[in-house]
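Record format v2
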Amino acid sequence: MASLKRTPLFALQSAMGAKFVPFAGWEMPINFGSQIAEHQAVRKNAGVFDVSHMTQVDVSGHDAGAYLRRLLVGDVAALDRGRALYSLALNDKAGILDDLMVYSLGETFRVVFNASTREKMAQWLAAQQSGFSVKVEFRDDLAMLAVQGPDAMRIAQTAFGHDLSSLDKFAVMRAGDALVARTGYTGEDGLEFMLLAEDSLALWQRLRNLDVHACGLGARDTLRLEAGLNLYGQDMDESNHPLESRLGWTIAWQPANRDFIGKARLQAIAAADGMRELKGIRLDGKGVMRPGAEVQTATGAGVVTSGSFSPTLGCSIGLARVPAAAKGSVHVIIRGSPKQASIVSPRFLAQNK
Amino acid sequence: MSDVPDNLYYTETHEWVREEPDGSVTVGISDYAQDALGDVVHVELPELEAEFVAGEEACVVESVKAASEVYAPITGAITEVNEALESKPELVNEDPYGAGWFYRLMPEHALQASDLLDAAAYEDMTEDE
């Protein structure tokens, strides 16, 4: 097995007693003790995640905008400087190559991809460059910390030592060598810091000194699931298109003369019937749904793509790809026996209010 | 380091076994096992009087991370289950050798120490993992 990569924070986390797991070629903390305690800290106060495994790329040059307009379903021409966009890259069959964040810095765009797709995306980014005057630079010198939770803005601002009060949701700003964005993957308010490796250590320590809970990838997964956010490689991959992944809203169909990769195929799919959809699912009784579990509905079978336990709702929740008409009461097969479940909105957090 | 009390027996599948004065045995999962599983959110306990052969799946423990089987360490019938786990599954994490026990079982034959691992052997095993 190839050796696992470690983030700049590995030694610090190891000394804290973090439990590590291999994840997309990285040795990452899954938790620092209790995943549920970490989850709840983010819902109630604030938590910090080391997400330095994410792939950060700078796209610059005369045609940077034109290049990204060809590559992504969203339109960066409509993205103001200092704003962030969640988008997708498709192949020409409209299969999802990756989901990503694009941050507009004016002439340059910072693009943050998944760790698991790094090699594939590197090849794809290179393959699409012909005809464009563009530079694609992998920023392996950078780490990334996400500070999330209702207290995150206040505490992170103190820890970082910059006034961030002007930063609206989905905004990004430069602060010295760092980029700070008001984005995240937990359903809570918060910030993401893209910063030099050595600066990430100091920020992590200052956040910890301000009682921000250290959180692992385990809590990140249950937090994003409660918020109804897809995970690439689990809820969608190249065998899925955006319209069956609850991501139709990310597609900028207009202007009609912008041709992004996968658009023609998507238009054909949108006009066809028999679509499946990604929907929320909640187990009525006890037990936990896991990815891969079969879902039986009145309109046909489906499959659980993400399934776990929701600490906020106190029951098992998930995402399932099912026939578009599926609704109401269904069955999920758990260890061979059918269990009652309900198709619900994937905005699980809103159901708790 | 995980806690491995000397007065218990263990299995290769991470159950612990305690002999009771009435000849029954109490079964739970080790500190090592609960730590590896992470936060336990549900335990599917066996039915009372259910009979199991040594090594057979007796119940299932679900953590946030994964589902995991708990095996019968010896052949016998269930005499009692820890109903407290129905509402407080986190007891498995908080007190694996005490309030987090799973079930009691009356062995078909008297317990033979050679069927199980002692604390030293179990500790050696988990250190190698």
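Residues 197-209 of chain A form the longest helix (13 residues).
The mean pLDDT of chain A is 96.
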